Amino acid sequence: MQQHSWRPVPPSAVGITLEQHIAQQMAMSPGATGHFTALLYQIMLAAKLVDARVRQAGLADVLGVTGDTNVQGERVQKLDVVANEIFCTMLKRGMRTCAIASEELDHAIVLDGGGRYAVAMDPLDGSSNIDCNVTIGTIFGVWRRRSESMERGHEGDLLQPGTALRAAGYIAYGSSTMFVYSTGPRFGVHGFTLDPHIGEFFLSHEDIRVPKRGNTYSVNEGNSSKWEPSMRRWVEHLKQEDSATQRPYGARYVGSLVADAHRTLVKGGIFAYPADTKSPKGKLRLQYEANPMAFIFEAAGGRAITGRAAAPGASNRVLEVVPESLHDRTPLVLGSPDDVDTFERLLVESGA
Question: Which pTM value belongs to this model?
Answer without folding.
Answer: 0.91
